[in-house]
């Protein structure tokens, strides 16, 4: 059995839309919606799946398909796609889903997604803290240690610390020190016109570097 007490009795579910190659799919394109459950031993197992496609449907058919998807998802309230937009995205949002945009295979990100979700939940119940901004170490060059911030503000997620700053993209270089590469940061970097590189710098420590994409000559 897993020594992690957080998993015991906590049957967390995460839904993922998958393309034909087993990686995350685009919500507006045909795919398979698979629901994973984390068991008492902290392992993830697929527990149900269904095909899902929205193309070429009338408004009434779209509503019926979304209603069917909601029924299929049941109590699951976390949904992961490579890209999410359109009617399905807005209906999921209205229903209270936490929607993640991540590129990759479920085994690569499920633990990180749930860790971030649990951190968000804990932060919402804790005292309000001022979140430190990245430190400007030279003109337009910034650095921040997510590890240090989370050490000072227990339960705060990397998204709450950094996502707004990344999406603003008003920097020449941003160095992020963390204990794992945040599952959302690579896709957000691409959407913000940034290059994202990461490397393991030591036991339980990574360096993520974001820089503006350079025009190809």
Automatic annotation (TrEMBL):
Pfam families: AnfO_nitrog. This is Nitrogenase iron-iron accessory protein AnfO.
């Amino acid at each position: 059995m897993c020594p992690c007490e957080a998993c015991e009795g906590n049957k967390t579910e995460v839904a993922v839309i998958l393309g034909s190659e087993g990686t995350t799919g685009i919500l507006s394109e045909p795919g398979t919606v698979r629901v994973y459950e984390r068991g008492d031993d902290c392992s993830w197992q697929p527990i149900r799946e269904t095909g899902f496609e929205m193309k070429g449907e009338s408004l009434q058919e779209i509503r019926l398909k979304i209603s069917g998807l909601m029924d299929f998802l049941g109590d699951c309230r976390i949904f992961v796609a490579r890209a999410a937009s359109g009617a399905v995205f807005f209906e999921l949002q209205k229903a209270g889903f936490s929607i993640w945009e991540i590129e990759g295979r479920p085994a690569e990100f499920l633990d990180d997604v749930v860790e971030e979700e649990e951190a968000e939940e804990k932060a919402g119940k804790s005292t309000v803290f001022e979140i430190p901004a990245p430190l400007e170490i030279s003109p337009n060059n910034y650095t921040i240690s997510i590890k240090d911030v989370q050490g000072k503000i227990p339960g705060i997620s990397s998204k709450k610390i950094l996502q707004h700053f990344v999406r603003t993209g008003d920097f020449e270089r941003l160095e992020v020190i963390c204990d794992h590469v945040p599952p959302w940061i690579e896709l957000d970097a691409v959407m913000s016109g940034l290059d994202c590189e990461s490397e393991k710098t030591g036991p339980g420590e990574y360096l993520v570097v974001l820089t503006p994409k350079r025009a190809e000559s």
